[in-house]
Write the structure tokens for this entry.
Amino acid sequence: MIEKIKYFRRNADQLPMIFHFLNTFITEYSSNLKILNEIKLSVEEIFMNMVRHNKTTDMDIAVKTEFSNNSISISLIDYEDKPFDILTTDEIDFDEYFEQKKYGGLGIHLIKKLMDDLIFNHNDGITTIKITRNINKDV
Amino acid sequence: MFKIEETSQNEIKITGEFDASQAEIVTDFLEKYNVTITLNFEELSYISSMGLGILVKNYHRLNGIGHIIILKNLNDHIKDVFKYTRLDQLFVFDE
């Protein structure tokens, strides 16, 4: 397994640096832009959720990249006492969503659609959310 | 480099990567329009869920006053994102 880790401040202005880190790692294994963008979308959603909803710390958020068995995995690691388990979110009822003119909350639905695996773990005040995408699918 | 500009009357071209760090720029830009607009995604490589949210919010705002948003030149990634969120049923596409 090959892995790299980097730390980012808790701010949306870090997204270009996170994307650069992801681009550099992912393009070593896949030149498929669709896969790259799907992973970027999922990482952005998780990162921004951590920035917006966890106000209990100013510590950096870690982004860890891994490659094994034809799959790219990205873990986002944050310190928080009261974690938000994104796996517990309800499925979106799109008829109701459009009828009520909602316009947010699509990110977690998209992660579940685009990634092959999504794992949430919280232990000793540390939350880890790990996404995995097989690079041989949809190529 | 991210860019949003009006390239012809009521046609807006968005270039680069539309992520959460561009949310305020796009929101401020689109809020000026109270007519049917066309968004040209020819050089838009990436859109995040926050970007989608801004488009949907503007769709409802314009729809409420009798106008629409037309989208054109979507890449495969952006087409998939619209399909998985069923937003392909909401917007008009100029294919």
Q: What stands out?
A: The first helix of chain B runs from residue 23 to 30. The beta strands of chain B are 3-8, 11-18, 37-40, 44-47, 69-72, 92-94. The radius of gyration of chain B is 12 Å. The longest strand of chain B covers residues 11-18.
